Amino acid sequence: MSEQTTAAPAPGRAAGFIKDNLREYGMLLSLLAIVIFFQVVTGGTLLRPLNLTNLVLQNSYIVIMALGMLLVIITGHIDLSVGSVAGFVGALAAVMIVRWQLPFVPAAIACLIIGGLIGAAQGYWVAYFKIPSFIVTLAGMLVFKGLMIAVLGGASVGPFPPTFQKLSSGFIPEALTQTGGLYLTSLILGLVVAAIIVYSNFTSRARHLKHGVETEPQSLFIAKNVLAFAIIGYLAYLIASHRGMPNVLIIMAALIAFYAFVTNRTIVGRQVYAVGGNEKAAKLSGIKTERLTFFTFVNMGVLAALAGLIFAARLNTATPKAGLGFELDVIAACFIGGASAYGGVGRVGGAVIGAFIMGVMNNGMSIVGIGIDYQQVIKGLVLLGAVCIDVYNQRR
Q: Is 79 in contact with 72 (CB distance < 8 Å)?
């Protein structure tokens, strides 16, 4: 099989492979095109070290929630309450830490448990009572938005102690001496992550070839990995030029790696895709579909709680308007990143790319001076275009 595969001309094979996997490669190329476009029109401001760090901080909580939302969407459901849950948990954290003077760690653990319980409450109605997730989570959005205002008493609560603020605005400690304006620990860590990603890609390709699974042409594979290492290395260099690696970037990277492993390498991950592809067939094959759906909502609740903690730490206060519109950005990130509105399709990498497409567009349009009104119009059109592409791929 491999001999037949290598017989065709490499350029033709690469072009054909990209065409057949347009969902995956299209979003990555779109992100690169958007970054290059705004880098040019902003006069180089977009990728300045300070702005790049701010871009990571501004989108970290969207990326984190997108990881949970992706699993929910793959199973064929939706969660409209994530923004309200994030705001509500941030409000609880403010009451616990600022008003009650609780230490940061037990307060954060309690908030994550509460987020999981919220997800369990909503997932129970969806999974076992078969109430449409749209209705359940729409009700949850209203309930937790009201509870957030009640907990805060309609006023902002803050500021948080410095230890809590470091969750979002802190940077990893530097073990090496700063040289030439570079934080070497952050730079080396970034290069190590890039090397691990490339190594993982090579081992995955070797495993696919061993089992006769169709994989991308070698020339395209090598070019993609060289480019990936160069881009990640360059971004690590830019971040190391400012204040080093943000703590939240480490949290985000660890979660991305974990969920990529779960969705690609575990039985649970394969079962999630099976439920989204055909729930009845999955149930007949022995998969406990209700329990799986239930736990995807529990997982979503925990990640929404974590995002709420990070957002509150970044603002250094909990406000009654926290989390407003987050659910739209999170859902849009998943769909733009290639998740299917019909369920059963989606990748962790795609959701992350979708989140950063939204983030780069927000940041770039703000730098250029485009008003919030037209920003919303452009983002809506991009989301509509992504869903249209999904529908087109479904009909092919």
A: yes
Enumerate the β-bridge partners of residue 179. Answer: 182
Query: What does each of the 396 residues of the chain score in pLDDT, given as a tens digit?
Result: 334 444 444 555 656 666 656 666 677 778 888 888 889 988 888 889 889 888 888 889 999 999 999 999 999 999 999 999 999 999 999 999 999 989 989 999 999 999 999 999 999 999 999 999 999 999 999 999 999 999 998 888 878 888 888 888 888 887 776 666 788 888 899 999 999 988 988 888 888 888 777 777 788 888 888 988 998 999 899 998 888 889 999 999 999 999 999 998 899 999 999 998 888 898 888 889 999 999 999 999 999 999 999 999 998 888 998 888 889 889 988 988 888 878 888 889 889 988 988 888 888 888 888 888 888 888 888 778 777 766 666 666
Q: How far apart are CA 383 and CA 333, in angstroms?
A: 8
Q: Which amino acid is at 6?
A: T
Distance separating alpha carbons of residues 147 and 141, to the nearest angstrom: 10
**Integer CA distances (angstroms), 148 to 58, 254, 303, 319, in order:** 22, 29, 17, 9
Q: Using DSSP, state whether 173 is helix, strand or coil.
A: coil
CA atoms within 13 A on the CB side of 318: 32
Among candidate residues 348, 344, 339, 340, the one with its CA nearest the CA of residue 280: 344
- Collapsed DSSP state (helix, strand, coil) of residue 248: helix
Q: State how far the Cα of 49 lies from the Cα of 310, in Å rounded to an integer.
A: 21
pTM of the model: 0.89
Tell me the backbone φ, ψ of residue 179, rounded to 5 degrees: -125, 125
CA gap 218, 224 in Å, rounded: 10
Q: How many helices (H) and strands (E) does the chain have?
A: 17, 0
Triad 182, 183, 186: Cα angle to 5°: 125
SS3 content of the chain, % helix, strand, coil (to 5): 75, 0, 20
**Sequential DSSP letters for 176-228:** S--BTTB-HHHHHHHHHHHHHHHHHHHHHHHHHHHTT-----HHHHHHHHHHH
In contact, 6 and 14? CB cutoff 8 Å: no
